[in-house]
């Protein structure tokens, strides 16, 4: 038995015994409330009020103990069993938890996602609508959760790495609202089975190399859904498997700690000293929290009795963390049985009150809409020629539904409307139609808004500043243009950091950063390991904390390694937080034509379909790329910039306002006006088409050439269809596989812009072959569209 006096000595502020006792009982209260929330929430799912539930029962005591050392300014990058962390840190309340369980779209009730994410997906705001960063040092911060297992790990590197930058880069020291000298820790949590994911291992390796203040907590309940740990982890223990990562004298690496998830006093003692060390030294640490239980199983979609033995289930009852903490409190005479019984009873009441309040807030506006529908539908039934029985049935079914949903109201309304279209001029039906249209639009806004930033954070609110050229403008290679640009950018903007494979010492493989590390230092322009996944994570975390990272993928083909966090995390971030969280990462890469399978990629269809929510910029040259960087850095949206691989040594004039001119997003540029055919393309293909146009002009064919500039957003003012109205012929040309980028552009202009109405001949798409590009100059010629292909296609169109 641990003596009270010894325990009190472990409390950081050396609280008096009475204060210590109150703190312990408050921690027990939090654990009990969280458990009651889990039990009650499961019942809500099983009775049908909620659709799915996954809860943090069995982890309450460990999460309470961890949360005691989570300070304002710190960040959480956790997973969907962290409800107790959210309650203990004040990031969420039980009522908000239930509002999310019910998918309440009202952000006043469910502030984390407006009903768009399932339960225990928490988020805190980081940017205001005015484009200014909030005071993150006054908040306990949470990067929004996502369901893909271990998906929270890569960004944890960046959240912690930002602290390193805030501490070591003097130019950032005045940003007191973003950091207190880099003393902030990223708390990353993960289930033990998910440590089998490559995301986990790459994160551990990167953080161990970088030496950043990352605290990784592994909740080990012995299973990955139904699969025991012995099938998941080498040595049947993640801490044993990671032993080679342990930091020793003169090495980098991790500190590793083992604790029991039911041992409140032991965890507090370890966490207090260990987290203080992380905060002070920036040495990362892994906490293997073992002997965790999961009283209700994995989720509401199954029962753990199916795969756990009777012995295991019996052990889990005995080692339930809440029961163990309860026994410890009594054994150490911190209070009597009666006090604990009262805490437990109050916890039940708190959970029940939270559930009731959240449900009433969710269901009341829906029931009000039901009444509004009834008021409008009733007069319809009295209109001559109306099927009164059908209308009455819709009204009765809605009124009898004790738990109606918004879709039920809309379905009832449209059922009446579509069956009485011949009476649409009748006043009662007009009123119902107006109600339906307005309600549908409002709810679409509830569920489909905020894919992109708005207000001052939006790229569309960045003023357009054209490039200016002096009469004696210098002509440089494309890479030299970028080199001058990045030099000015790093000099003028202390928040900008560039990093990636070979970016630092040699100045990237195409020399855009040549000499800049030597000038600006290794912290501003940094070499990384070959780890695309965590390069993206490094950028994501830094961007979430107010820095402006340019994270490089060396070649576009390798974007696949880093695609998951860009798609699941960044692209959907603003949508799934309903606009409260922003991540203005810029991913820089290069692609399109060169020579070879792995260095000539142009998988634009994959990119634009997996990265909706990002800006996808496809500059044809490096001056244009610089203008795009300027635009992006004045906004707060994420972007992918794909520079043309074969454009770095092409000659370009240097603008006199290189560091201030901007290229608008979503506005194509007409490079050449023409009357016979519209040719739409981007990137490296622009030069191929320009060369083909020379031949076509000699043949008497007048071509209008349009560079779309960005694929996302795409032609927001519908200027391409205006060209089509003039030429009545159109072709879309790129280097993607058939049905890729060209099909996207085709759909946008033909369907979205109604371009089909202006066609005199069938529209065309010209793309690369379905396979990867073969090696060599002939391989390029036969794998991707060439000048002759363009000429032949246009001539066929003119002869049709």
Automatic annotation (TrEMBL):
Keywords: Oxidoreductase, Thiamine pyrophosphate
Keyword Cell membrane found: no
Cofactor(s) required for function per UniProt: thiamine diphosphate
BP GO annotations: branched-chain amino acid catabolic process; response to nutrient
Gene Ontology MF: a single term: branched-chain 2-oxo acid dehydrogenase activity
SMART domains per UniProt: Transket_pyr
Location of the Transketolase-like pyrimidine-binding domain: 476-650
Record bears the keyword DNA-binding: no
EC number per UniProt: 1.2.4.4
Pfam family, one: Transketolase_C
Function: E1 component of the 2-oxoglutarate dehydrogenase (OGDH) complex which catalyzes the decarboxylation of 2-oxoglutarate, the first step in the conversion of 2-oxoglutarate to succinyl-CoA and CO(2).
Protein name per Swiss-Prot or TrEMBL: 3-methyl-2-oxobutanoate dehydrogenase (2-methylpropanoyl-transferring)
Organism: Chitinophaga oryzae
